[in-house]
Amino acid sequence: MSKLVINYEKLTMDNIKELVAICPFNAIEAKGNKIDINAGCKLCKMCVKKGPKGVIEFVEGESKKIDKSLWKGVAIYVDHVEGKIHPVTLELIGKAKEIAKKINQPVYALFIGHNIEKKAEDLLHYGVDEVFVYDYAELKDFTIEPYTAAFEDFINKTKPTAILVGATTIGRSLAPRVAARFRTGLTADCTILDMKENTDLIQIRPAFGGNIMAQIINPNARPQMSTVRYKVMDEAKRQDEISGKATLCKIHKEKLHSNIKVLKVTKKQVENSISDAEVIIAVGRGIKSQKDMDMVQELADLMDAKVAGTRPLVEAGWIDAKCQIGLSGRTVKPKLIIVLGISGAVQFTAGMNSSDYIFAINKDEKAPIFNASNYAIVGDIYEIVPKIIEGLKANKKIKAVI
Ligand SMILES: Cc1cc2nc3c(=O)[nH]c(=O)nc-3n(C[C@H](O)[C@H](O)[C@H](O)COP(=O)(O)OP(=O)(O)OC[C@H]3O[C@@H](n4cnc5c(N)ncnc54)[C@H](O)[C@@H]3O)c2cc1C
């Protein structure tokens, strides 16, 4: 592992002050006539490059060599609550099939829970080669220790080269624990995944506030792990016939011990999420006042659509935070999204550019949203939207087509 080495004999009271001031992450702490580097260090090497010469050195660690041929298959984690499978699972299967095909390796699904055997068989309709089932009473409710233990057991026995996990509440808490057990990397919220011939998984995700798309690979560790948000990848299609097999896995019961006792499960009200909407009217700062949201709502009602929008509208309190599309909001993939008065910042488009049809209206012909759109009108929403509403009211056939 690479590390910073402090040459204590070169420390003086003056250069200690200099080093403390230079670190952008406040990771260098003065401790009398010595210094400490704390957990805030990002190994940016600013102290090495810009600090007093030779006081701190960067020592490159040797990367451990792994035998990639020992790791085979692309696995997905089956996200569920009480056996009800989250649809992100089918999206993960769709992507896993695509990338596994490139290296000619199988697709596995890992299903952890209780009374799930029948449900596991259903996954074989989606082209999974083998579903590994951990079906124990101790796994009835999601508790982190036994689920991590079952996941670990699966990896040790199956050795998949890559594992995809849905970026749901469960996936986001489970995947990092599992990655830490194997001292491997985990890339969160990937938007694009691809596979190299040498089985290195190419994980692409927005970084630095969405200003760049980072391409991340993990060539020196296995398994490679990624989380993927719901509605980013295409679902695997259900086939009538089944393929592959479901395998019931055994694990020592003591490994399933948890220090967490589930006393009661209170179900959250099922929310009508924009992520599930087939038609969305998305609005941005082109809307001039809150009362104009009535016009947007009228259009949405005529089209059986949901209203969503950009972050500034959430900040203004004009739409609910759950209806924000984008990097710090939700990802949507409707059949049709009508985008009104939105510039098309990358932080917004990252959350909607997989939609089937994107129709944008903006008065600025150079607005970046047009680069992501299938259909576009350069014009004022206050002129165009009332005309669409009028047209829809007059012609019910159009409404039926939508
Ligand atoms: C870390 C980070 C995360 C972020 N996450 C998100 C996120 O998740 N979601 C998000 O949306 N933003 C996010 N943002 C903010 C993002 O960068 C943009 O500022 C935001 O998306 C802009 O919103 P907008 O398009 O509504 O406004 P603007 O950029 O101001 O665009 C308004 C558009 O309306 C057009 N317009 C104005 N009047 C009319 C009219 N009468 N008719 C037609 N067109 C008109 C203008 O030409 C303009 O293109 C994030 C930013 C950061 C730094």
Question: What does this protein structure show overall?
Answer:
By secondary structure, the protein is α/β, with parallel strands linked by helices. Helices cover 25% and strands 24% of the residues. The termini are far apart. The model has no long low-confidence stretch (mean pLDDT 94). The site of flavin-adenine dinucleotide (FAD) has 28 residues, from helix 8, helix 9, strand 20 and helix 10.
How would you classify the helix and strand content by structural class?
alpha/beta
Bound molecules: flavin-adenine dinucleotide
**Count of helical stretches:** 11
Q: Please report the total strand number as a whole number.
A: 21
- Mean pLDDT figure: 94
Shape: globular
Q: Give the proportion of residues in helices.
A: 25-40%
Assembly state? single chain
Low-confidence parts: none
Radius of gyration: 26 Å
Widest beta sheet: strand line-up? 11-15-10-5-8-9-16
Q: Report how far apart the termini are.
A: 57 Å
Specify the biggest β-sheet: 7 strands, parallel
Beta-strand portion reads 15-25%
Present the secondary structure layout.
Elements: E1 3-6, H1 13-22, E2 28-31, E3 34-37, H2 46-49, E4 56-59, E5 74-77, E6 80-81, E7 84-85, H3 88-102, E8 107-113, H4 117-122, E9 130-135, H5 144-158, E10 162-166, H6 169-181, E11 186-190, E12 192-195, E13 201-207, E14 212-216, E15 224-228, E16 245-248, E17 279-283, H7 293-302, E18 306-309, H8 311-315, E19 336-340, H9 346-349, E20 357-362, E21 375-378, H10 381-394, H11 396-401
Parallel strand pairs: 5-8, 5-10, 8-9, 9-16, 10-15, 11-15, 17-18, 17-19, 19-20, 20-21
Antiparallel strand pairs: 1-4, 2-3, 6-7, 12-13, 13-14
Helix pairs in contact: 5-6, 7-10
This protein binds flavin-adenine dinucleotide.
